[in-house]
Amino acid sequence: MADDVFSEHRPLLFTIAYEMLGSAVDAEDVLQESYLRWSAVDRAAVEHPRAYLVRVVTRQALNHLRAVKARREEYVGAWLPEPIRTGPEVSEDAILAESVSMAMMLVLETLNPTERAVFVLHDVFGYTHGEIAASVGKTEVTVRQIAHRARRHVHARRRRFEPDSAAGREIVRRFLLAASTGEVQELMELLAPDVVQISDGGGKVVAARRPITGRDDVARFVLRVIRTSAATTHVEYATCNGMPAARFVTGGALDWLVAFEIHDGRITGLYGIRNPDKLHRADTVLPLDRGEHQPWKP
């Protein structure tokens, strides 16, 4: 019975933990810790299992987020969320797709742990301030203030976003073809003037340590990377974090993954993950779920 109830809500619980932590590995750890607590509780005394589990996962994720803060600050080079493969149901849910996109996850990183929890639970999953108060150990009035502050912060920094689509995948295909054949003009036309490229090697593999901005510099960087790639490298297309992505496989192993942010027919962001510790979930589609709550509408 405990297994059945937890399994039923697992996609929702994983989604909450992942959006709060930006790491599938850490989210799995949180779910394991939460399951142990759920197994030990007197379930006859739990009137609403899903609400109880959401509260447990939120508290465990908050504890975990505070514990990894120092680790994030000491990270070598740019930090990106651990990419996860997502199914079509994510791309079809615009709010969920945006909430797990690389750009949004980076914005969430700039919030403190409580702000992040409140924003995720309220603006993505639609929980009320009162429900969230019980999860984060604050009063409802305080949660309302935190939600307002977090939303203002996020909205000031959020980037334009379009979920994965056939049109987006075609833009990625044309972009990679132009890069591999040296068609500079085509490459430039597919990049937005303010495009941003971020690489995450974690200090374990070669990767740009700082973001690269602007069409000219990003184009030069991409052409340089393509020229130095191994001849045996081939490209596989996928959907990661609700975004079109390309997997670069060398010798049968995933070497790096690039997720593409697209808006109005141009690439506005490239997020390249090379840190091998972050590529373990890149082969398995992970089910995400926002549950039955209706999302907040601005």
From TrEMBL:
Subunit structure comment from the entry: Interacts transiently with the RNA polymerase catalytic core formed by RpoA, RpoB, RpoC and RpoZ (2 alpha, 1 beta, 1 beta' and 1 omega subunit) to form the RNA polymerase holoenzyme that can initiate transcription.
Domain RNA polymerase sigma factor 70 region 4 type: 102-153
Organism per entry: Streptomyces blastmyceticus
Matches recorded under Pfam families: Sigma70_r2, Sigma70_r4_2
Coiled-coil residues: none
Keywords: Sigma factor, Transcription, Transcription regulation
Entry protein name: RNA polymerase sigma-70 factor
Origin: domain of life: Bacteria
Family: Belongs to the sigma-70 factor family. ECF subfamily.
Residue ranges of every copy of the RNA polymerase sigma-70 region domain listed in the record: 6-67
